[in-house]
Amino acid sequence: MTPSSNPQPLSLTATQADTVQKAVRYWSRSNLISSTLAKDLLGTIQVVEEKHDFDWDKFAKYTFRLAIICFAIAVLTLIFDDVVPKLIKRIIALPASIRITITSALGIAIHIVGYQHSLTTPQQPYLTEAIHSLGALFFGLSALQLFKVYEGKNADVAGHRVGLALALVYGATAVLVKSTFIWTCAVIVFGVWFGCWTAYRGGTYYLGMNYPLRFVFLSIALIAVSMPMRAEPRVAVLWSATRVWGLIYMFHALWILSLYGNDKLRGDEFGGYGGPRRLAFWSLAFLAAAAVAVWHGLRYGDATTKGFGLAFLGINIYTKFFEFCWSAWYKSVFFAVMALSLALMGRYAESVNAVLQGQGKY
Q1: 3-class SS at 32?
Q2: Is it the case that residue 15 has pLDDT exceeding 80?
Q3: In the prediction, which pLDDT does 173 show?
C-alpha cells in the first residue's frame, strides 16, 4: 500500500481524532501496517471544532418540556385561583378513593396514548416524551391524594411509603418509555424519599452521618449504578442522566460538608476543638473530587465530568475566599481582588481562544 504524494487532510473533532490516532498506533504496534504508513496516516489528521449549527433537536426537546412545566403551572394556578372555587370544592368533596382512581386512570390512559403515538409517529420522540410526562404528572397528583388520606394517621411512615412507591412508578415508567425526563423525576423523588426516610430512622444523624454525608454515599451509588446501565440496551438511554444526578448530589453535598462538616449540627463551633481540622478535611475532599473529575474529563474526553470538576473547583476556591477574607478585608478591597481574579481568568480564556483560532482548530 503506497500513500498518495499529496493526501487530502481528514478533518476530525478532537474526540474523533484521538480515537483514530489510537487505532493507527495500535495497528502499527501490531505490525498490521508499517511505521511509515502509520506516520503518513497520522499526518493527514486535522483537528477541527465540531460545527454547532442551530440544534433543532434540543430545541424541540426543551420546548415540549417547558410546555409540560407551563401546563403544571396552569393546573396549580387553576387550583389556587378564586375563579373556580365551587368546582374545586366539588372535586375535593369527592371521596379520596374516587380522586385517586380518577387521577391514576388518567395517568394510565395518557401513557397509553403516548405509547400509541410512539408507534405511529416515531419521528416525534419529544412530543411522545411530553405526553408521557403529562401522565407522570397525574401519577404525582394521585400520590399526593394518597398521602392526604394517611395524613394524621402515622403520616411519616405513610409518606415514606408513598414517596418510595412514586419513585418506583416513575422509574419503571421511564424504563418502559425510555424517558430521561421522567427518570430525572424518579431520581429527584428518590432523593427526597432517601433524605426523609433516613431522618425518620435516625433523626438529624443517621449512622453518624448528617444529610450531606448521606447524599455523598447516595451519589456514589448512583454513579456506580450508571456505569453498567450504559451497556444494557433497555436502560442505556438513562445512564447519562443517572450519572449527572449522581454528580449533582455529590458535589453539592461535598460543598455543604466543606462549609459545616459532619458535626457542626451537634453544637461544635468552627473555632472549637478539632473544628478547623474537620472542615479542612472536607474541603480537601471537595477539592480532590473536583480534581479527579477534571482529570477524568481530560483523560477520557468526557465533557460532563470536566465541566462539573471545573465548575465546583471554582466554587470551592471562591467559597474559601469568601470564608477567610470577607470579614478580614475592606469590602472595596475584597471586591476589587475578586474582579481582578475574574478579569485575569477571562483574559486567559481569550488568549487560549486566540491561540486555537490561529492553529485552525476553530
Answers
A1: coil
A2: no
A3: 85
pLDDT computed for residue 138 by the predictor: 83
Does the reported pTM lie above 0.85? no
Give the mean model confidence (pLDDT) for residues 338-349: 73
d(CA 117, CA 128): 6
Which residue, 137, 140, 120, 133, is CA-closest to 177?
A: 133
Inter-residue contact 250 to 289 (CB < 8 Å): yes
- pLDDT tens for each residue of 221-248: 998 998 888 888 888 888 888 999 999 9
Residue with cell 414517596: 163
3-class DSSP assignment, residue 45: strand
Is 4's pLDDT higher than 60? Answer: no
CB 220 within 8 A of CB 250: yes
Residue type, 254: L
The 10 Å Cβ neighbour count of residue 1 is 5
State the Cα–Cα distance between residues 33 and 48, nearest whole angstrom. 26
- Going from the C-alpha of 318 to that of each of 147, 149, 287, the distances in angstroms are 42, 47, 12
Tell me which H or E stretch contains 88: helix 85-93
Whole-Å CA distances, 341 to 309, 323, 350: 19, 16, 14
Report the C-alpha gap between 160 and 167 in whole angstroms.
11
- Helices 303-325 & 275-300 angle (0-180, nearest 10): 150
Match 465540531 to its residue by C-alpha cell. 50
